[in-house]
Structure formats: structure tokens, C-alpha cells
Fold this protein.
Amino acid sequence: MESVAVIVGAGPSGLATSACLNHLSIPNIILEREDCCASLWKKRAYDRLNLHLAKQFCYLPHMPHPPSAPTYIPKKDFIQYIDQYVSHFKLAPLYCRSVKSALYDQDVGRWVVMTRNLVTEEVEEYRGRFLIVATGENSQGFIPDIPGLETFPGKVVHSNLYKSGNDYSGKAVLVVGSGNSGMEIAFDLSNFGAKTSIVVRRPVHVLTRDMVHLGMVLLKYLPMSLVDTLILLLSKLKFGDLSKYGIRRPAKGPFYLKAITGRSPVLDVGTIGKIISGEIKVLPAFASIRDCVADFADGTSHPFDAIVFATGYRSTAKCWLKGDDYLLDEEGMPLPSFPNHWKGKKGLYCAGLSRRGLAGVSMDAENIANHIKRVLDEDVN
């Protein structure tokens, strides 16, 4: 099957890019390995998840959230929004297509994408002048190599398989990872009566959603350094000195770090209060496991019944994308710096890899569609 553009991935990035291409009347095909769109949200997100940013920063191109929507969209409402987006823009992903390779054919000037149909087990070929990698930053859950982890007798899950703390009541649970997912999962576990500990290995900014919202508004009018100073002052007034509880602040400000490294601040949902009260224990770097006992960098050891790894994800694009030495690195992330990260060579693009959330997804999708339109117009002229 051939189309002008082939999009790999039917998460928000792939759907947004397809909608922008449709808006410009550019034929495209979406290939998705799962049996639904936005599978990360539908299958691998914990129950209490909300969008961390206000709704005006979290919509896809050409379809803002309605005024009646809550400021911070719950998981179920965002899934409904995605399904409405697919219907409104008449998007038609081809599901259960696992991409095995994508290679540029110089002779015909086309990307050749080979897939396996997971229903029929047949090998299928798709061709397009343009190829958009939209498999996202969160393609595959990552669990670090912890010495002795294979000896642990309890339950070990990545956060993408965690749904709720209901199954962990009364158990000693270690959460590894202190980003937003780890902090929120620790809070959820504690609410369900788990004896919860969380590994906080590196410095992290802790803010509230309202602080981030205020900061994003102020960034339209004030220098980033001033916004960082103001927001950090509010954070210190709200939370005090968290270093005595094992949480250190980075030297650079939260908005600076987000812009330069893509690392987001932690948006507190109540976890910090439980840490201060002692309901949730903060532990340093995880060193090793001996049976049910975990050893830590400070020399302490603690027994656990279960471990939840909120240690992030990896892109899998480089496993199947062949011949590209310009756009993506070995970890499947963009080599060109923002804001030029989305455009490669020979009609290759990536969407949703800027570490700038749904606003970054929308920016990528519109940039890609507009660029493809310009290329096609130049061919006609």
C-alpha cells in the first residue's frame, strides 16, 4: 500500500500529525502496533492520573478543550477527547501492525515500511514519500539493571503496569523513581494503606500545579530567570526546606531545566505532606537486592514485599528505523536541537520527541504537515 506519508504510531503525536495532514488534504497512513489508539493512556496509565498542566497547554491541533472541561483533565476525560479527535478528523489508523523495518529506497525516492500484521501474521509493505516517527518517548518501559533483582521473591512491576494501590494494602512497597509518576504512585500506595518508601536519587524541584500554571503564564511576559526566581520563592514558602527529608533542589531553576534538558519538576499531589509526616519514607540510591532485602547507597537495608519501577521509558524507533544517521540517536531521541529537532533528511520526520508535552506534540505536528505541504507545492511549481 502506498500513500504520500506514512506515520508510525497512533498516540497523540501520530494522531495530531495525521489530522494536520488531513487538514491540508495530504493523504497519509497511520500504522499502530496495538489494537487501539493512545494505548499508553488506555492500557498503561494508573487510575488516578490527570494531565499535569492546565487544559490550555494540553490540546491537539485544531481542537481545543471546551470551556466546560476541568482545568486539569482526568485520564478518562482525556481518553474521551482523543476518541472524539479521531472521529472528528476521520482518522483511520491501521491497528495491530508491528513495524519491523523502515528503509529509504533511493531508486524510487520512497520510504519502504515492512510490518507484521499481528492478527493474520502476514508481512505487509507500506510505501510513502515521507515517513513520520511518532512512536513517542514512552514506547517501552525501562527497568534499570539492579544487582540481585532476579532473586527478589515479591512482585516487581514497571509503572506502566501499575493501576492502583488497592492490591498493595498492608505491604511494604518500594517505589524507584522520583518523577511525577513515582511521586504520585507513592501517594496512591500510601492512601491504600501500603507501607511506602520512595527512592529519590537526584535533586528535583517540587512545585504545585498552580505554580507551574502561573509560571507558564508569566513566561509570556517576563524573562525565564525571573520566573524561576519567583516560582522557587513560592515553592520554598509552600514546602519549606525539603533537604532534611532527603529531597534536594537542583542548582538551576525548574523552567530553565525543562527548556534545556526536558526534565519536568514534580507537581505535588499530596506526596510531600506524607513525606513530612513520615507516612512515606525517602531513601537514597538503590544499590542491590538480596532476596527480599534492598540495599541502599547510604549503607542501610530494608525488606520489601513489592517494587514499583517508575524509572521512565525508552524510544524503540532505532530498532526498526534503518539508514538514518542524522535525525535520531541510538536511544531514539532527536539529534538536532530544539526547535529543529523534528526534521530529518529524505522526507524523514519525528513528532512528539521534544520533551515538551502535548504543546510540543502539537507544534511538531503542525511543523511537519506545513513542511510537507511546502515540499509538495515546490514540486508542482
Summary: The chain has a mean pLDDT of 93. The chain is about 30% helix and 20% strand.
